[in-house]
Design goal:
Blueprint (H helix, E strand, L loop, with lengths): L2 H14 L4 H15 L5 H5 L1 H7 L5 H32 L3 H7 L4 H20 L8 H10 L4 H26 L3 H39 L2 H5 L1
Amino acid sequence: MQEPGLVQSVLDFVAAHHGDLGLLVIFGSSLIEYVFPPFPGDVITLFGTYLVVKGLWSFPFALGVTTAGSLVGAGLDYGLGIWIGRRLDRLPSEREVKRWTPLTREKYTRIVAGFRKHGVAYIAINRFLPGIRAFFFVAAGAARMRFSLVMLFAALSAVVWNGLLLGVGYSVGANWERLRSLFTSYTTVVWALLGAGCLAALGLWLVRRRRASGDGPRGREG
């Protein structure tokens, strides 16, 4: 079966069951993308615009369903972070830490310290960063950020992002291919910017490391 036919079948299913199974599909997709980041939750969320355009859901209801799913998923990630943080804090040695995480204790401590200082900003922009947003909440939990504060900014971020997503979808109407094309373009640009940022950070780290090594005993002898 060709992809457009499959997509239309899913759209028709969601529309036919918008009061029960369709609602669970959209709520669940908003949740699962936080638990399993590769899951294309935002694409499924776009189906909510289809229901709004068809007059089956109101805009506020679609926004509420998608935002609720996002917050439940974020809460689960936060809880996982709490569990990971407590376990790592109790581990007696560096070797034990490496059994549970690819990070050294030093790097883990640095990440936790960074989230305690700038965590609110990371949570506030999480919804605009596809693929990595779930890790922000795990780190927030490990850093023991206040749950109410995390959920407050998670809600604000989710409302703004889902509102924009649904708003763009509503303005495009029932033209699914155009809507998906717009979202794909956005996702590609964001990943390109993230990749460029990572390369810039790596380059800066290498330059600093080289300068630091040049300032060592051998460098000073020259």
